[in-house]
Amino acid sequence: MQWRCEWCGRNYESDEPPATCETCGRESFEADTDDDPFESEQIVWACADCGREHVKHSPPCARCGGHNLERQRVTVDVDEDVSAPGYLSVGAPYLLGALVVVVIVGLALVGVIPVPGLSGPPAPPDAPADEERTASLSLAEVEANLHDRFETERDSEGVQSRTLDGGDTGAFVTYLTRHTVAERYDDGYDGDGPDPSAFDIRCQRQPAVGVFETAVDADAFNSESALADELATAMLDVTEYRSAIRNDAQREGISVHVAPDGTVFVGYLSC
Predict the structure, then answer these.
(1) Rounded Cα–Cα distance for residues 153 and 252 (Å)
(2) Mind listing the pLDDT tens digit for each residue in 42-77?
(3) CA 82, CA 59: separation in Å to the nearest integer?
(4) In this predicted model, what pLDDT tens digit does every residue of 193-242 receive, in sequence order?
(5) At 99, phi and psi to the nearest 5?
(6) pLDDT-derived band of residue 89, with 50, 70 and 90 as boundaries?
(7) CA geometry: angle at 45 spanning 42 and 51, to 5°?
(8) Residues 139-156: what's their mean pLDDT?
(9) InterPro entries recorded for this chain (predicted)?
(10) How far is CA 143 from the centre of its chain?
């Protein structure tokens, strides 16, 4: 049988009521005959001055310092809504924030939302002609040789070395180059240029970017380095490109594309 101290509410389980309460020392007990498992009666001590409720009779009041605590019974029905906020309502703003982060990260991982540095840069558009080779030459090798040629130029000018395609510089300039070619040679193309915010470029200075065009016959060269030398010479002859190639940038992106009519496009970005 359950016995409850009428003063502090401590429960005891015994056939007979205890002689004294071990918590408050009182000798007044009542039988706990609550048959409804979904209701419970609690004893609280309310401050007569400010109404603050306390679980035990332990003056002074934690809120106002008053010493007059009155014993009250409180019945709680767990089937009813309670006024105190529960775990979900208290945590709702934080849980929502966590959910938003998880959803955004999840969508970024599958490429639905572009998050620079996480989902990767957007894929460049398709452009007429082969983006990887012209005749027997690898355009990727031409790009690498162009970078080496520019490094030689910078070394002769006492300018610091650069990283090729650091961050998303290569991806950005590839997108820009293919967009330029597609606009020129594909009547059905209606795409837009690259959105800089979708690329993890991380420039340390104002970027310089452009697409250089030349009518040089790429098929006339028997090596990637020879074609790269020709392109580098042509670009260094243009003041704007020469300045971009020689400045104190930390990285550069290069993209070479040969159009259907043989025009060579060289996308270039330094930052």
Answers:
(1) 14
(2) 567 788 887 777 666 667 776 677 778 777 765 444
(3) 27
(4) 888 888 888 777 788 888 999 988 888 999 999 999 999 999 999 888 99
(5) -65, -40
(6) very low
(7) 115
(8) 95
(9) HSP_DnaJ_Cys-rich_dom_sf (IPR036410)
(10) 32
Q: How many CB atoms lie within 10 A of CB 172?
A: 28
Q: How far apart are CA 208 and CA 268, in angstroms?
A: 8
Candidates 66, 125, 120; CA nearest to 257 is 125
Which sequence spans correspond to the domains of the chain?
2-77, 85-120, 133-270
Closest CA to 227 of 237, 216, 238: 216
Pairing of strands 133-134, 208-214: unpaired
Nearest to 262 by CA among 168, 173, 156, 129: 129
How confident is residue 143, by pLDDT bands cut at 50, 70 and 90? very high
State the Cα–Cα distance between residues 215 and 168, nearest whole angstrom: 28
Spell out the SS3 assignment of 134-174: ECCEEHHHHHHHHHHHHHHHHHHHCCCCCEECCCCHHHHHH
Q: Which two tokens stand for residue 61?
A: 């009041």
Which tokens is 172 given? 């950005």
- For residue 234 the two structure tokens come to 């042509």
For 133-270, CATH number? 3.40.33.10
Q: How far apart are CA 206 and CA 271, in angstroms?
A: 6
SS3 210: strand
Strand partners, 259: none
pTM value surpassing 0.90: no
Q: How far is CA 39 from the centre of its chain?
A: 47
Using CA atoms, how far apart are residues 245 and 240, in angstroms rounded to an integer? 9
Q: Which of 84, 77, 54, 80 has the alpha carbon at shortest distance from 66?
A: 54
CA distance 72 to 203: 69
